[in-house]
Design a protein that fits this description.
Elements: H1 2-12, H2 15-26, E1 50-51, E2 55-58, E3 66-73, E4 92-100, E5 103-111, H3 115-121, E6 139-143, E7 146-150, E8 158-160, E9 166-169, E10 185-186, E11 193-198, E12 205-211, E13 217-224, E14 234-236, E15 240-245, E16 248-250, H4 252-257, E17 263-265, E18 272-277, E19 286-289, E20 294-303, E21 309-316, E22 331-340, E23 345-352, E24 356-360, E25 372-378, E26 388-396, E27 402-406, E28 411-420, E29 430-438, E30 443-450, E31 460-464, E32 474-478
Antiparallel strand pairs: 1-5, 2-31, 3-4, 3-32, 4-5, 6-7, 7-8, 8-9, 10-11, 11-12, 12-13, 14-15, 15-18, 16-17, 18-19, 20-21, 21-22, 22-23, 24-25, 25-26, 26-27, 28-29, 29-30, 30-31
């Protein structure tokens, strides 16, 4: 009976529940220590900058013509309740560097214009439809010649201009019915984006959403679940989408108590991986049990000749079990999962037990057997901190070798993105790029590594005179040449 009542409340998210949450939020005591995701490396920037006189060490490859974009939470005003604030809900800010002709032309940072950000800046609201929340802060991707800022389980995507300005909130030209995801994956053959999406107001379903190369939704297929799971990411093989239904679920007590991110570790929720053919009905999914854990980010997946599926992930023993402020569990490491759909079971093997996150690959090999994966190291500091270490990790999945690029003491690495040297380059032939913060100097370097000389000196470093807060995800978006007139 209690479960049915809770489901009814969650589905309606009544005004009374939200008023009670606001009342309890206002009564929360002031924290006794600085909020870990509003201070230190996570302290927000307080202004938008445009820098054109950038100091560069080394040589920026002339082949790199485009923008490196990275987004993360950056509250424009202190939260009304510091204790209730969660890292994942802060106003979005996108950071970008424009490279062309072997030069760094500019750095910019811009808040993504939610209604609250526009009010704080004294601007008219950005156009476009809204859905549930309009805070967008987690990823930046390109599709159909447009740049999209993304978030999961909340606001619609936001279209960004070439100089990071907010153009509009946009549900893919009216074709998206519900929320989207921060982690769509591009099928390397079709060019379509596949995502698994969920809503806090619907605990019984998630959705497989496919965005066509025209930038419109062509599939939005429901999949039955229980408890309202938080499905942060998914993965593709050539023929299947893999669904990570793991024990972090919607928490009515957290919502009523006033916390801004009402999801928590739920040991009663069955941990499983779903295998769904790309265009099959949602009720045909095959669920395979896995030992309880949580995965924010898989690296890649592929099918083997004997019919099994290999899935590589960074796994956490638990998540959101002890903190309402942000990630609170250390990564158990980089793991290889073997999915046996006949036995409906997933085997787990630890490849590297060191703390790491944000795995990236040469995405031309999404869904295929591959060799290289790169992860950002994490410090094992425990507690509520989620702090980048001073090194980037490279996994050679053919030989089992593990290598590090060490950026030096006191420096903190974020997600690095791989860019192939050219369209026909071999896997791993290209560059790695990302942001590294100097904690003592409170500055940031945009670093380009030659992937073939992973442990060597950087190919180029663009020095930025300020600290970019620790953030989430981004991409390299190459410049697309305009079509010639007919």
């Amino acid at each position: 009976m209690a479960g049915r009542i809770e489901n009814a409340i969650r589905q309606t998210v009544s005004a009374g529940v939200l008023k009670l949450a606001a009342f309890n939020r206002a009564r929360m005591p002031a924290p006794s220590a600085p909020h870990p995701y509003l201070s230190g490396l996570n302290a927000p920037m307080d202004s938008e900058l445009t820098l054109t006189d950038l100091v560069v060490e080394g040589t920026i490859p002339p082949e790199l013509d485009g923008r490196y974009l990275r987004i993360g939470p950056n509250p424009i005003r202190p939260p009304s309740s510091i204790e209730a604030h969660h890292w994942f809900v802060g106003d979005g800010m996108v950071h970008g560097l424009r490279l062309a002709g072997g030069r760094a032309l500019w750095y910019r940072n811009r808040w993504v214009r939610s209604s609250a950000v526009s009010r704080a800046l004294g601007e008219p609201e950005a156009p476009g439809p809204r859905h549930f929340s309009d805070t967008v802060n987690t990823h930046v991707v390109a599709q159909a010649g447009k740049t999209w800022a993304l978030v999961e389980a909340g606001g619609y995507p936001v279209r960004l201009g070439d100089e990071l300005q907010t153009l509009a909130h946009d549900n893919f030209d009216g074709s998206l019915r519900g929320s989207f995801s921060a982690h769509p994956h591009r099928h390397p053959t079709t060019g379509e984006l596949h995502a698994i999406c969920y809503e806090a107001t619907d605990p019984d379903h998630i959705r497989h959403v496919v965005i066509g190369v025209d930038g419109r939704v062509r599939r939005e297929e429901p999949i039955a679940v229980k408890h309202g799971p938080s499905v942060h990411d998914c993965m593709l093989t050539a023929r299947h989408v893999l669904v990570l239904d793991l024990p972090v679920t919607f928490s009515m007590p957290a919502l009523v108590a006033g916390y801004s991110f009402p999801y928590a570790w739920n040991p009663a929720h069955r941990a499983r991986v779903g295998v769904l053919a790309l265009d099959a009905p949602g009720d045909s999914i095959t669920w395979c049990d896995v030992d309880p854990c949580y995965v924010f980010h898989p690296a890649n997946a592929y099918e083997t000749a004997d019919g099994r599926i290999v899935l590589d992930v960074v796994a956490h023993a638990t998540m959101f079990a002890n903190s309402r402020h942000g990630p609170d569990a250390e990564a158990t490491g980089f793991e290889r999962w073997a999915i046996d759909t006949a036995a409906r079971r997933v085997g787990r093997r630890v490849v590297d037990a060191t703390a790491q996150e944000f795995p990236r690959i040469d995405e031309r090999f999404t869904g295929r057997a591959y060799r290289w994966a790169w992860c950002a190291g994490l410090q094992r500091v425990g507690g509520e901190a989620f702090v980048g270490a001073q090194h980037l990790v490279r996994h050679d999945l053919q030989t089992g070798a593990r290598d590090l690029h060490d950026f030096g003491a006191g420096r903190h690495v974020g997600e690095f993105v791989f860019v192939p040297r050219h369209a026909e380059a071999a896997e791993g032939d290209g560059w790695l790029m990302g942001l590294v913060v100097d904690g003592a100097a409170q500055t940031t370097d945009f670093v380009i590594l030659d992937a073939a000389r992973f442990g060597g000196a950087p190919q180029a470093v663009v020095h930025l005179p300020h600290r970019i807060p620790a953030g989430f995800h981004g991409n390299w978006l190459p410049t697309v040449a305009a079509a010639s007139p007919a």
